[in-house]
Design brief:
Chain A: It is found in: Cell inner membrane. Chain A: Belongs to the sodium:solute symporter (SSF) (TC 2.A.21) family. Chain A: It comes from Sphingomonas tagetis. Chain A: One of its GO terms (cellular component) is plasma membrane. The complex is a heterodimer. By secondary structure, chain A is mainly α. Chain A has 24 helices and no strands. Chain B is an all-alpha fold. Chain B has one domain. Classes of the chains: A mainly alpha, B mainly alpha. At the A-B interface, helix 7, helix 8, helix 12, helix 14 and helix 16 of A face helix 1, helix 2, helix 3 and helix 4 of B.
Chain lengths: 567, 108
């Protein structure tokens, strides 16, 4: 078995998704009903219903529905983005990775964070200045609407669909594990709550639920990390030393020779098997860096703030919270080594963690805070799933109603009420489809779907956005053809990669050797747009190029930007 | 459309082109630095795993720890630097350009 590929699969599952590697790749054992966790979650669900009711009164127009009327502040949006991005999986999955392999988990975290500076420097402000509801507004700003919007809608729906399936399956498995609820019940519960939030409360409800969840997750993780550090007199090195000791003695217990065991213990302090050869490393790096910058539900969050200045602040706040969170996760992972790996209460007879390795942080929360805190952390994990699926659904609904219905189908003549009606129908449809697919895929290995979503975003959306924003000679035809080429190559290469070909479908040696297609598909997206634009000699292309100057000035100044609506 | 006239006036403002040039150059340079450092980090790991596994002084912590945590802080610090410069240096100039352009529009 190739651990790199497995690691990369796990990696992508961890990003912005509560779908855990283990929860996805393996069946989890249903646990006895956890009443404290259920009660805590019920309290959270009640709070979110109140938020949704309050938000419903502020959701009258399409603008309210998609962007909360543009009235979210940079600070609030930063928290909401963090809530959209830090998932139960970053929390459980990365800490589990550190629990198992040590330092490799930190490499994941760093990768997740590095896309944010790119968003900040090159995308966020221009996105806000040119767009209204979807990133397609920006990518199609000076182009013929039909082709570019259609490409963007296809891309958004694909990304949202793969992401949602992974979320739903992960949610079902995780909730089965944490709450002791049957899988279908968990999936339906997630689906129903998500539909209520989005349908009734739109972006306002989604935003505030993401904010609540971010605050709960940051508070919970801070408490765990501080409790761990407190035990070691706030000395990280003492924590590391003890962790190496624990890993060494566990290796000795398994019958390793002392020298070998010592090496195994020390190995957690340095890079392990996660990154192997330079080409895989670059491919993985590209997918991470650019994937985040092309996720439609993340990009959509920048339309909720009043102007480019607040968009800029949002990224700073979001990155600060996410970075802080990853540092906490690092401490939590090492804390789990010293407090969970040595505690018989959390092991089955064979020395494995009860409920699988992703339970490391959950067990640690019990070790530092008892049953009550365990319940709280379980509820936070559930809340996290809801916040992410709500954002995804809203993004999918906007692609159908704003890009396909209002812009392509109705050529911009649809009323706000019509658009709102279509997005609500889409939300309901997406919610029902997500639940059905979640149940259908219960026993499938869907781990590759999140890595696929990232690869699609990096290979289709990012080349489209960057070239339409920064390259004068770019044309709509180029964006459509090149963008689709990026999407298609990312899709096919992912199917041909070891993760899917060998691990998921068991078809033997994979035709494409690298687990991330980004090293091929990202350049293909860029080159496709470049080449087709260059060869596009139509009169329409000339007009599109001529509009670049105005687009550029508007993107730099915010002249003509859609203003926040009054409330 | 009034916006179009404002836009033309902004474009012909002598302060506009240098401002945008400086801002754009800064944004791409900073992007290149962050991407370069991250790629260097994972390439170092791919090419020589032992390097970052070297302990720091007499500690258990390896060089990988300060380098890794440093990269997390770098991501935040680079955005903070960009935001600060934008708020203090570029926004006031852009606001002045815009308000002049709009004022001329109103005076007409």
């Amino acid at each position: 078995m190739n651990r790199l590929y497995f690691g990369l699969t796990a990696l992508f599952v961890l990003i912005a998704t509560p779908a855990l590697a283990d929860a996805l790749t393996g069946q989890t054992q249903q646990q006895p009903l956890n009443w404290i966790a259920i009660a805590m979650f019920a309290a959270f669900a009640t709070l979110t219903i109140f938020i949704t009711r309050w938000a419903a009164r502020r959701t009258r127009t399409a603008s309210d529905f998609y962007t909360a009327g543009g009235g979210i502040s940079g600070f609030q949006n930063g928290l909401a983005i963090a809530g959209d991005f830090m998932s139960a999986a970053s929390f459980l999955g990365i800490s589990a990775q550190i629990y198992t392999d040590g330092y490799d988990g930190l490499i994941y975290s760093i990768g997740f964070l590095m896309g944010w500076p790119i968003i900040s420097f090159l995308i966020a402000e221009k996105l806000r200045n040119l767009g209204r509801f979807t990133f397609a507004d920006v990518a199609s700003f000076r182009f013929a609407q039909g082709p570019v919007r259609s490409f963007a809608a296809i891309s958004t729906l694909l990304i949202v669909a793969f992401y949602l399936i992974a979320q739903m399956v992960g949610a079902g498995q995780l909730i089965k594990l944490l709450f002791g609820l049957p899988y279908p019940v968990a999936v339906v519960l997630v689906g129903v709550l998500m539909i209520i939030y989005v349908l009734v409360g739109g972006m306002t409800a989604t935003t505030w639920i993401q904010i609540c969840k971010a605050v709960m997750l940051l508070a919970g993780a801070s408490f765990i990390a501080l409790s761990v550090l407190w035990q070691f007199g706030f000395s990280l090195d003492a924590l590391f030393a003890r962790a190496v000791e624990v890993k060494t003695s566990l290796a000795l217990d398994k019958g390793m020779a002392p020298a070998e065991a010592a090496a195994k213990g020390a190995a957690i302090m340095g890079p392990g098997s996660f990154i192997k050869d330079p080409i895989s490393a670059v491919s993985f790096g590209l997918a991470l860096l650019l994937g985040t910058a092309g996720l439609p539900h993340i990009l959509m969050r920048f339309f909720t703030v009043p102007d480019a200045k607040e968009a800029r602040k949002s990224v700073l706040w979001a990155t600060t919270w996410i970075g802080y969170f990853y540092i906490l996760t690092f401490v939590i992972g090492f804390g789990a080594i010293v407090m969970v790996a040595t505690d018989g209460r959390y092991q089955d007879g064979a020395g494995a963690l009860l409920g699988g390795v992703n339970m490391a942080a959950i067990h640690l929360s019990h070790a530092v805070g008892g049953d009550l805190f365990l319940g709280f952390i379980s509820a936070v994990a559930f809340a996290t799933i809801l916040a992410v699926v709500a954002g995804l659904t809203l993004s999918g609904a906007s692609a159908v109603s704003h890009d396909l219905y209002a812009s392509v189908w109705k050529h911009g003549t649809a009323t706000s009420a019509d658009e709102l009606r279509v997005s609500r129908i889409t939300t309901l449809t997406l919610g029902v489809v997500a639940v059905l697919l979640g149940i259908l895929f219960e026993k499938q290995n869907v781990a590759f779907m999140v890595s696929l979503a990232f690869a699609l975003a990096a290979s289709g959306n990012v080349p489209a956005l960057i070239l339409s924003l920064y390259w004068k000679d770019c044309t709509g035809r180029g964006v459509m053809v090149g963008g689709l080429l990026g999407l298609l190559s990312a899709f096919i290469l992912t199917l041909l990669s070891p993760t899917v070909w060998t691990t998921t479908f068991g078809l033997g040696d994979a035709p494409f050797p690298y687990s991330s297609p980004a090293i091929i598909s990202v350049p293909l997206g860029f080159i496709g747009i470049w080449l087709v634009s260059l060869l596009d000699r139509s009169a329409n292309a000339a007009e599109e190029r001529a509009r670049f100057r105005d687009q550029q000035i508007q993107s730099e100044t915010g002249i003509g930007a859609f203003a926040a609506s009054d409330h | 459309m009034a916006d179009q006239e404002v836009l033309e006036r902004v474009a012909s403002d002598p302060r506009y082109v240098p401002l945008v040039r400086e801002r754009t150059r800064f944004a791409w340079t900073l992007s290149a630095v962050v991407v370069g450092l991250f790629m260097a980090f994972i390439l170092v790991i791919a090419l020589d795993k032992a390097l970052l596994a070297t302990p720091v002084g007499g500690l258990v912590a390896t060089w990988g720890i300060p380098v890794g945590l440093g990269l997390i802080l770098l991501a935040i610090a680079s955005i903070a630097l960009f935001t600060r410069r934008a708020n203090r240096r570029w926004d006031p100039v852009m606001a002045a350009i815009l308000s002049d352009a709009v004022a001329k529009d109103a005076a007409k």
